[in-house]
Amino acid sequence: MTRSRFCARFGAALLSLLLAPLAGAHAEPTRGEWAGLIEVAGRPSFWRLRTELVDNQPRLAYAMPGGGVNAGGEWQPLPGATMGDGRIGFTLPAAMGGGSCTARREGDALLSVATDNCRLSMVQVASPPQPAITPGLYRLRDGRLVSVGSFTDFPQPTVIEFGTGRWAFLFERGAGEATAGPSLQSPWPVRLTLKRLPAQGQAERLLWSENGAAPQIGERVDIVERPMRWTNGALSLGGTLMLPPTPGPHAAVVLSPMSTDAPREAYRQQAEFFVSQGLAALIYDKRGVGESKGDVRETGLTDLADDAVAAVRLLKQTPGVDPQRIGVWGHSQGGWVAPIAAARSSDVAFVIAQSGPSVTAAEQEIYRVETSARNEGLSAAEVAEAADYERRLMHWVKTGEGREWLQDAARTKLDARWAHLVEFHEKLPELPSRRAQTFWYFDPMPSYAQVKVPMLAVFGDRDAFVPVERSVALLRQALAQAGNRDHQITLLDHAAHGLWATDLDSGHKAATTTGFHADYFPTLVRWMKAHGLTGQGTGKR
Question: What is the pTM (predicted TM-score) of this model?
């Protein structure tokens, strides 16, 4: 599947205004750091701002740890900042379209003033960043289970409340304290405050304080972890098995990675959900990532499925795991891989596939580009131009035709508003590789038609990455061909590709969503209970 578009693609002076009360033009420069959301022309990016002294002169620098024009998170200077009448301003990088931002200090927040095309919502954070709350699964006094960690491939600490699906980034405020705002990336106004408490015995604790509710203590749940290594042929893979602190044997699930190169830790919070329901969960590094060898660029979907099958075989021999109840979970590209794994091995006892296409990767990519361009509000002509580029690229992959046109587009279309949705190639090889053809034009339907084990497939009806209606129809057709009557296809209304609640699957909505669809976790729980997979877990959801 395509890499996540979770964040939209996207000086040298700033006075101490950012960190001290507004004091006038000659205030002493002070160093500090801020984090939050900047929206330019409706396109959001997650930023960190830092004030610093360089050659005894104040400077403002920025980093974008979640992707965009500064995707590596390295600090880069911002051009000329200004201040006056209690305001500060700076010029945006050219890669974000230029223009300027103006903001004011309000307590611990840095908020935008009505200006041209920029909106800003940030809070002061610890500098350098430091984990305020120990990652892990916590049980609150009222029985709720919440997870603190980093979700998918985004580095910012995230809190997820299982049951309701609510989530938000945590902003490290120093001294063992973190806060969260009203939505995922919006830090202000503060809705939730977490404070690290002294451990009680072996258990780490936190204080959970929500607006309008009495604070309560949360205690970290003990999860048993085992490092695991296995092989698929000559390829060596590494992962971590997480088990409930209750007697086994437990049903187990192998979490097949998505298309990104994020390590196993990106799937820890999803694994903690399964552990909370009494299942063991194996997370692992994808090929070429972390402790796993190989190169994912040289593999196809069946190779990735075989990696998951090899993990299932390993778990069948692992103490604490029920060898008859081991399945594969996957989201996005993993949602392709999970049913393919079940088709290739009778060791796979069940499948949970999320947002997994039933079409080729080429068809899925064309759909993604066209739908995403439309959802970003581009004109009909721009949408058509973006889709045309992607069709020509996929046609080249299949036939080798149109290479010169694509290379010319890579030189002339970089400034197009849809450019961040596609991949340009100024130097394409003479012919596409055999691997490219087999990957982009692999038909999953023959594999799906061999899936005879219980299967849950979950889709969001607003998915901008996957043609859901067509994928559901093809999946039903394939499972009918397999004679599989033990399957459930759930379509969550007003849900995105990532299964978070929205009326539109776009970068802006992703940044401001309040969490997973309300029925996402309950759907998984009901299905797992109906199939005898849940056991004595870690408590209430």
Answer: 0.90
